[in-house]
Amino acid sequence: MKIGVLALQGAFREHILKLQALGVQASEVRLPEHLQGLDGLIIPGGESTTMGKLAESFGLLEPLKSFTRHQPAWGTCAGLILLANRAVRQKKGGQPLIGGLDITVDRNFFGRQVDSFEADLDVPALAEVAQPEDPEGPFHAIFIRAPAVVEVGPNVQVLTRLPGQGPIVAVREGHLLGTAFHPELSNDLRFHRFFLRMVRER
Ligand code: GLN
Questions:
Q1: Which residues line ligand 1 (CB under 6 A)?
Q2: Rounded to two decimals, what is the model's pTM?
Q3: Ligand 1: centre distance to CA 141 (Å)
Q4: In the chain, what are the domains?
Q5: CA-CA distances (angstroms) from residue 197 to 157, 186, 193?
Q6: Which residue has the higher pLDDT, 89 or 33?
Q7: What share of residues in the chain are helix, strand, coil (percent, to 5)?
Q8: pLDDT (0 to 100) of residue 115
Q9: Cα 105 vs. chain centroid, distance in angstroms?
Q10: 180 C-alpha to center of ligand 1: Å?
């Protein structure tokens, strides 16, 4: 199995380390030809406007759209924004999106006053992939200027919300996965295992 990580900007190295820790071949994607032969793609956190514009200028936006139409992809934080069909509070003039997930994200849901925070999330679906060496119970999630999912289409599975019926912060729709937080920064491999199982089942 070979997984690519979009490496234009942002936290791509951390995803590569997590994939390697799971014994999976991981490669950096910067050019359209780097998508060839991949079984899945991770779009990391960073700055979604910058990443979208870089993708456009490297001629990667259309190849990314074609790839994610049929093959498994996971967007974390800025990556979730890029995989959303709709984003609110975009920069003036909008921003290029890859799309695919039938959701609306609010880019700036938590505002400036909480730049980053951590939360323990109850994610029942992770029990399906957990190994004996994994942490048990909630997933300790790190949010950095995070978006939230404010609308979901009928085929979108809500994987978790912030505690107390808070906003939706992880979703799956078929072969696409999106998390508003950064599992590559947590000391927990369960979300990476979950994505790899989606890739295997494809
Ligand atoms: N809010 C950022 C954006 O709009 C995402 C932040 C992140 O990926 N940590 O791109």
A1: 45-48, 77-78, 81, 107, 144-145, 147
A2: 0.96
A3: 15
A4: 2-201 (3.40.50.880)
A5: 16, 19, 6
A6: 33
A7: 30, 30, 40
A8: 83
A9: 12
A10: 9
